[in-house]
Write a structure and sequence with these properties.
Layout (H helix, E strand, L loop, with lengths): L16 H10 L11 E6 L3 H4 L6 H4 L9 H19 L4 E6 L45 E5 L10 H8 L3 E7 L1 H14 L3 E10 L3 H14 L2 E3 L1 H9 L14
Parallel strand pairs: 1-2, 1-4, 2-3, 4-5, 5-6
Helix pairs in contact: 4-8, 6-7
């Protein structure tokens, strides 16, 4: 079986021969390796970004302006596998999702580049909160939920302090969007000297090109972009006593 270093990658179709030669000559894309105490990060997998059911993206965004369409639900299935593996080994599963005032005042800069941003404000007529994590991967009592208002899961949140409290030295990043909040979280984790892995098939984006190219760029410089199956195999091979300070849950 080919591993992630030698198998065809999702971004290959978007790279020129020059791009490939430059990456190889410059030494980018070396495997960084897993850390010793990884935490799983599930970035913004809410109804606002996934919609409320698998459907073509142009149908889904009629009701959910930020939806990434059916691809969201393919990734959600992989996130579920990863979360179950982390829980089985008593390792942290940490979710992020957005939070906004009912009057939308704190949306701030999100409103500058999208004329449908106000649809993210909670409205009584909605059956589902756009910021609610989809029920298929709803947090368990021992899991941690971090609220945020900007792309990175670290910006203005307790995420870094929670990772310190847990004693984590590395993160596995999943969620959405690959080019936005996932990438921003990966860059901050890298900047804080965590080892970073990104689960390629457990991330999703509304733009196919942005998804592929941002995976390429993260794999080149900031993270190991790997299939979920490889990450699950690694996690299941670990002992279950790495995180004695994990929350007990209800």
């Amino acid at each position: 079986m080919q591993d992630a270093q030698t198998a065809p990658r999702i971004w290959d179709a978007y790279l020129t021969d020059r791009d490939k030669a430059v990456f190889e000559a410059a030494g980018y894309g070396t495997r960084g390796g897993f850390g010793k105490r990884p935490a799983l990060l599930v970035i913004d997998v809410s109804y606002g970004f996934a919609g409320d059911k698998p459907e073509p993206i142009l149908d889904s965004i009629k009701r959910w302006s930020n939806s990434c369409g059916a691809e969201s639900w393919d990734a959600i299935a992989q996130i579920k596998r990863l979360a179950e593996a982390f829980r089985a080994r008593k390792m942290p599963v940490i979710y992020t999702t957005g939070v906004v005032r009912p009057d939308g005042w704190d949306i701030g800069s999100w409103g500058w580049k999208n004329n449908r941003t106000q649809e993210s404000v909670p409205r009584p007529a909605q059956n589902l909160d756009a910021n609610a994590i989809v029920s298929e991967i709803a947090p368990m009592p021992q899991d941690i939920v971090v609220l945020k208002q900007k792309p990175s899961g670290f910006f203005g949140s307790n995420l870094a302090s929670y990772l310190t409290l847990l004693g984590a030295d590395s993160v596995v990043v999943t969620g959405t969007t690959t080019s936005g909040c996932v990438r921003a979280t990966v860059l901050d984790a890298f900047s804080l000297n965590y080892r970073v892995a990104v689960a390629e098939d457990a991330c999703f984006d509304r733009s196919q090109a942005s998804h592929a190219i941002n995976l390429c760029d993260m794999n080149a410089k900031y993270a190991d972009v790997l299939p979920s199956a490889e990450i699950v195999d690694h996690i299941m091979a670990q002992p279950d006593d790495l995180f004695p300070g994990l929350p007990a849950g209800a």
